[in-house]
Amino acid sequence: MIFPEVPTFSSFAEEREYRKKHLVAAVRAFAQQGFDYGFAGHLTVRDPEHKDLYWTNPMCVHFSQVKLSNLILADHDGNVVEGKYAVNRAGFVLHSSIHAANPEIVAMCHAHTTYGTAWCTTGRPLDMISQDAACFYENHVVIGASAGAVAVEKQSGKSVAEMFGNNRAALHQNHGLLTASHHSIDDAAFWFIALERCCQVQLLVEASGVKPKTVSEKSARYSREHVGNDFIGWLHFQTIYNHLAATQPDMFD
Ligand SMILES: [Zn+2]
């Protein structure tokens, strides 16, 4: 039966190519979702060989125009090691701090999205009001540090990194959403899309005035473990990847 399988690699070069292609697809998926906001927003994936370097989207290039040949490789100090474009300084501080503090994090996503930003004004974690929200049960955190301030200072990046810990996602108060994955950029990108949707759904429910029923702790934990794990995030993203690869072949230029 045809079913996607997580690939294995015989060399760093092969794995690097895979990670870069999937990073480009994740950025294009963000464009499709309308997650662009000027030059804000950044997605990162760690290099498989040089683990203190990560691939990211170039600053001031629209998400829809990101491709293999304009990705940049940056180090933890914000130096561009490979590529012609600049790195987003604010993005660098947040991402590099979280990557540095949590070496097992492979990939991260951040963007200024409408519903995520709206929900992040509340300073509250998501309520477990759907199976989709349950995928974030005890796996996301509200970060109030540096709330609403552009995170260009190293210290603010550090405090955010400490609070992020091992969670899948953070709701950065007065700022927006962050997701991270120990598995792949595919996983981080899918759960970012899912988290934005969860914020939208909870805002809709609250605006309706209807008191929602909540998922029990046991069911929420079950959902997170069975339909909310890393592999499922990766698997969800393969539908998006295959669609983009077929319809936007220029992303591999
Ligand atoms: Zn931001």
Question: Can you offer a commentary on this structure?
Answer:
GO terms for molecular function: actin filament binding. This is Class II aldolase/adducin family protein. Belongs to the aldolase class II family. InterPro entries: Aldolase-II_Adducin_sf, Aldolase_II/adducin_N, Aldolase_II/adducin_N_sf. With 253 residues, the chain is an alpha+beta fold. It has one domain (12-246): L-fuculose-1-phosphate Aldolase (3-Layer(aba) Sandwich), CATH 3.40.225. Helices cover 43% and strands 14% of the residues. It has 8 helices and 8 strands, in the order αββββαβααβαββααα. It has helices spanning 12-32, 89-101, 114-119, 131-134, 154-164, 185-208, 217-227, 230-247, and strands at residues 42-46, 53-56, 72-75, 80-82, 107-111, 140-143, 169-172, 176-181. Strands 4-3-2-1-5-8-7-6 form an 8-stranded mixed β-sheet, sandwiched between helices. β1 and β2 form a beta hairpin. The protein is globular and about 50 Å long. Bound molecules: zinc ion. The site of zinc ion (ZN) has 6 residues, from loops.
